UniProtKB/TrEMBL annotation:
Keywords: Hydrolase, Leucine-rich repeat, NAD, Plant defense, Repeat. It catalyses: NAD(+) + H2O = ADP-D-ribose + nicotinamide + H(+). Residues 1-130 form the TIR domain. It comes from Capsella rubella. This is ADP-ribosyl cyclase/cyclic ADP-ribose hydrolase. GO terms for biological process: defense response; signal transduction.
Amino acid sequence: MASSSPSCNRRYDVFPSFSGSRISIVIFSNKYASSTWCLNELAEIHHCSKELDQMVIPVFYNVDPSEVRKQTGEFGKVFEETCKGKTDGEKQRWMQALAYVANMAGEDSRNWCDEANMIETIANDVSNKLITPSSDFGDFVGVEAHLERLNSILCLESEEVRMLGIIGPSGIGKTTIGRALFSSLSSQFHHCGFVSYKRTSRDDYGMKLCWEQQFLSEILCQKDLKIWHLGAVEQRLKHKKVLIVLDDVDDHEIVKTLVGHTGWFGFGSRIIVITQDKQLLKAHSIDLIYEVEFPSKDLALRMFCRSAFGENSPPSDFMTLAGKVAILAGNLPLGLTVLGSSLRGKDKFEWMEMLPRLQNGLDGKIEKTLRISYDELDGKDQDLFLYIACLFNGHKVTYIKNLLGESVNIGIKMLADKSLIRITTPHKTVQMHNLLQKLGKEIVRAESIYNPGKRRFLVDAKDIIDVFTDNTGTENVLGIYFNTSEINEPLLIGERSFEGMCNLQFIKFYKDWSRENSAGLYLPRGLVYLPRKLRLVYWDEYPLKCMPSNFRTEFLVKLKMENSKLEKLWEGIQPLRNLKKLRLDGSKKLKEIPNLSNAINLEKLNLCGCTSLVTLPSSIRNLGKLRKLTMEGCTKLEALPNDVILGSFDYINLSGCSRLRSFPRISRNVSGLVLDGTAIEEEDSVYIGNISGITNLDWSGCQVRCMPSNFNPEYLVGLTMRDSKLEKLWQGIKSLRNLKKMDLSRSENLKEIPNLSKATNLEYLCITGCTSLVILPSSISNLNNLKKLNMRGCTRLEVLPNDVNLESLYHLDLSECSRLRIFPQISIRISLLYLDDTAIEEVPSSIEYLYGLTTLMMRRCKRLKIVSPNLFKLKSLTVVNFSESGVVTELGDASMVATVRLNAQQVNLCGEHFYWPYRILTVCAKNCESLQIISHSFLNLMSSLELHNCFNLDQDMRELIIKSEFNYVILPGREVPAYFMHQAGSSCLHFYLPHIPLSQKIWVFKACILLEPPTDPNDHSGIVGVRWYFRGKSSVHHFNVDVDSCKMDHLVMFHFWLNLREANDPPSEVDYKHVEFKFFHHNYGCSASCITNGAKRCTQTCTLSLERIKGCGVRLLNVSPSPYGAAEICETEYKQQFGEKYNVEKTERSKKRKRITSGTNEEDINLPGQISNTGPTTPHLELSLWEGEASARVSSRSKLMSPSVSSGNFHGDGASLSLSVSPSYLYMEEEALCVDTMITELQDGETPIKNSSSPPKLFNFLR
């Protein structure tokens, strides 16, 4: 067993200078690898780059970077010569370093005509990399990305003078970014200054003179500088290249006085103004603006962790808590830093104690910083800020303007310019940061700390309960915002509770519908008074039958009473000139709508689900501005007023109005019409021709056999007529130039599709379940924009049009077209092709032209006989499923060469990035009870293997699978194989590890679980995994897999890493060599905490699923600082370290297994790695199937492939072949192939895999 740890211990003695360097330049030549000293240096640079974040610049001097990366060509020959006599550990370390460094961005001398220019470029690159922000900004995570973007905007190469504004809300890090930028750029300017000034005097002239004097003194480094008149800045700096940063600017005069014009400064100058006020920048024609955005969720967590833990990530047991606190800070850097500092050094219990306080309050330091921006607003804008913070955060601008008046438009723009709110696009929604929202609520709370009834806004549930319980509301209250789901007991509201709140304008009593069994509000004596000035009444589940008799609505703008107990709103006619929206949806007892003749500005009326409503009042004729009427699910509605024509209508939804028999005639300008589920009769359908500009029509379930002749679909964009009685849509050819979507699914009487030659923009056509349809019209050849065609279940369809190539079609579903015999060929761009349950007999050779095909589903195709091998030439193919298909008698020429596509798979481990092998296939062969052998060339492609109920699998095949490398394997078995040295007859086992340096980061294990079949058919368990405990640390590895279809005991085997840096639990009482494993088997429905924290938190159902584990086993495969250079533990060492219990069986079966593994002498071996040719044959072949796997040694006299297609390393006397993994190797992208209960008749020849750099052409199927 090779180990690099001794060299690791000596590295700083041998190369003391590297660890202190910030950057290394590595110059590769053809002879570079001839020096062991150079290679050792490179390995140390590799270590410093990964462990110390040292920068590396590779320079390739007359050598191909790929030859360095892969150790091929002339460079590879020199490298191989140097490696002779060296240990495997040394060689692997060098290979890792070469691959790692050669994969970095650098310079290739072959791309330069002049070496001097290349050297100058490298020097500039080094200079730029070394000019970084000072360490003062090291804790500001993400500052580098800001600087990169700012440098791009500033364009320092240009000689023009540039002014740049940096804007963003308080606390987002503008000043920190500005200081870091100043620090990184100041060395490139003759004069520079980072300054911040505030107005301290009412004397404008004197104030400006003072600013100029201080400013020039700072820029010119002249302490006692005196000026006597304004304009000195332009005179003194006109010919000087300067860098000026004005920070925290809130006064127009500061910009005007100090940096009024670009002409005041010399060529190449850069002026940066940091402010919250975008309007200030616009006023001074500063067009280059950099808006500091809130950091991403991941970056925010890093910021918080840097303050709370001094690390980039939280300890495992703080992960959830850290995430919650980061969310409370709303991704605001100031909040993240302050909250992190306040929690630093505290234990988990203290964190949990502080969490409610952080949720409800605002840290004093954060409040002080944010309050400055609020205090600078004038009175009206301060009021608007509080309205948004307490009532309107997250609402559209139009909604706020409707409720507060058009005059607030200026204030909204002002708040947005000062970064106190954001207006999101495209819906123009107002968003206020949650810390600013907390600030607003805290300002309101401070108005009357001990008597909430005297505040302007009531937003806290506890305060609202107190006010209604004690009846302490006053005229100060303007708005109530109450989530009734937050109370555990019904809140009693008296009949006169609102009398004291005479100025109340906004009531919002809303319910979080995701919470069940919430208590709600209780009005046992009804309600006799609501304030006259109400503009918004939003009351979910209003419990009374009618509004108060004295309720006045003259100021009412919106009335929303969803799921109320209302039977009617009010008696008589109300003044409703301001009402714009009326929503009573879900009010099942509502029997009538009041007279709305005065609601002349009503725009939206929603009566969805009012199942007791029979008709609408004729007064709706006065609703001249009504645009949207929604009456979905009004099952008792029989008719709409006939004598009413409203020109403003653009949307009517009458879906599910099952008693409605007459066509609605209340508008001729409707653009959206939903009539599905109505009972409109055929003779009444003619009125649809009176609607001239309809764009979206949903008439699913319509009773007409053909659309009326006067129907004009010219403006239609979407047409949906599912479950209709249609026999045909219309006669003749219609203009359909706007049509994009047509859905006629389950129209069982439909016999023909109309001529679609003019539907040139149609993108989606769905005719699923049209069982009378026999053929598609040839006019579909004109559908050049058609992307999805769904004809599933068209049971009479026999053929598709010939000579058609739909150039945009990527999704075609012809499943269950049981008479379809010919493979569809209507587009070469198809990506997803579904042909399940068809009568297709052959997958033709022309399938190779479907170059974009990723998925082919042909399950239960009982007549399928021939599958052309050209199918597997397709480069993008990822999923093929022929399960439960007929007898496949021909799969093409078995001698055809299969190829495998390779891709890089990068994973994050211990905070470092490694390339880890990922094979191409997840193979499912469930219920293939006759399956005995899997070809080795096919086996080598698999990443995971599911062999549920494959009871006849050859024993030697089983042994090979057990000892091979997969993500996971499932196969029948009655006991844990002896291959797993450490075993237990339960779900838990423990043992002592061998004497291996505990400084290693990664330990690789292979595990096996013996599961009995489920006894309960409702036991949908599918999460399998292990929880390990070692040296007081623990972690969990789990994955999803189907184990419910097993008819008898099965084995589940998988690999996992033991990462010594992970820890969730407090230290346990174990010594440093003791390791414990607890295996589990959970239901899909188990919570995350159930899986993460172990069985102690499982539900009873889940606990029962754990009892299915009859035994378990573990085998230690390797230990390593990373998955590369792993010190493989071979069988002999296993026996020495773990005792005689381990015994390698050598039987006749294993000889047969060797033949399966090595193949015949005509076959080539294809496994990851590099080969150098040492002769035509080898008497001994050592196969290390995956890195870290115990070797499987087999005999062979296979002819070796040439070096150009080789995949392993010969060594020693030329009689041994070691196949291992290089970190630069590109691995296979996962694909899936399912062959459930498929009957296969394959030719005897096995298809070799010869080239590992091209896509799959022919899979060796299971036999």
